[in-house]
Amino acid sequence: MPPTRDTSRPRAGGGPLAPSRLRQAWSLIALVLGSFVFAYPFLWMIATSLRTRQGVAEGGVSLWPVQWHVENYVDGLSSFPFWQYLTNSLLTTIPPVVFTVLSSSLVGFAFARIPARGAGAVFAVVLATMLLPGEVTLVPQFILFRELDMMDSLYPLIVPSLFGAPFFIFLFRQFYLRLPASLSDAAIVDGAGWFRIWWSVYLPLSQPIIVAAAVLQFMSSWNNFLGPSIYLTSDRWKTLPLALAGFTSANSTDTSLLMATSIVVVLPCVVIFFLAQRHIVGGISFTGAK
Question: For residue 101, what pLDDT is reported?
Fold first, then answer.
């Protein structure tokens, strides 16, 4: 008598697996639609930057330029001193990124590994400053830099980064707490001081959180508009976000030129984020892992 086939088990590729695959398909469709909603303004900016003035008026919400006008990028960048403003933006972005990462890492290491009385209370005060909006400390900082005769210069946009940022201090502290304490114990046995332990042992192991903090600080400094608009009064030290604010009046609201210039200004943030997104997610998730 031939053996009977057991039909109680679901076959591979069918049965109970079908609803699961259907849910995945619907989830994928929802994610694609949601991504398109968020990406649509950026795609519209790209399409508008490639249109003529007539194409902008007739294009509406379309994402495909009828008449390609690549010259908008050349005309837009040549309509104002782009390279001068780019240099100022780099000067107010790269030094703050370096200083913020190094100082926040050093302070976070001290809170995580150096035993000191009252360290918990001081760390609580540092975290409490995160609850203060930037507008609250804006007036005291303005008075301070005015008394130091630093107005209409790049110093007010660079000097605060020397003392770190509370959010990044918190991230570095949590990251260093996840590393084994035996690293610092072994270095102490070898005669290393705390600064040498941070510089030679812990900092080289901090690549994920360093990349995450550097990218977040880069985006914050690169897109900073409020600070330059308050401290800078002459065209000599204008940054790109501040220059874009006056671009409309200078070019009679030429939307295509404005969009082309905005794409060039935003492009570094987009490229850096996509190149470092894995490190950002990995670094931040590691600090919160149990």
Answer: 95
Q: pLDDT at position 2, please?
A: 53
The two structure tokens encoding residue 279: 């490190």
CATH 1.10.3720.10 fits 82-243+267-288, yes or no: yes
Residue ranges covered by each domain of the chain = 19-69, 82-243+267-288
pTM over 0.90: no
Q: Point out the residues of the chain with pLDDT beneath 50.
A: 11-14, 250-251, 288-290
Q: What is the 3-state secondary structure (H, E, C) of the chain?
A: CCCCCCCCCCCCCCCCHHHHHHHHHHHHHHHHHHHHHHHHHHHHHHHHHCCCHHHHHHHCCCCCCCCCCCHHHHHHHHCCCHHHHHHHHHHCCHHHHHHHHHHHHHHHHHHHHCCCCCHHHHHHHHHHHHHCCCCCCHHHHHHHHHHCCCCCCCHHHHHHHHHCCHHHHHHHHHHHHHCCCHHHHHHHHCCCCHHHHHHHHHHHHCHHHHHHHHHHHHHHHHCCCHHHHHHCCCHHHCCHHHHHHCHHHHCCCCHHHHHHHHHHHHHHHHHHHHHHHHHHHHHHHHHHCC
The 10 Å Cβ neighbour count of residue 177 is: 13
Q: In this structure, which amino acid lies at residue 180?
A: P
Q: Quick one: angle between helices 119-128 and 94-113, nearest 10?
A: 150
Hunting for tokens 């005291």 — which residue is that? 140
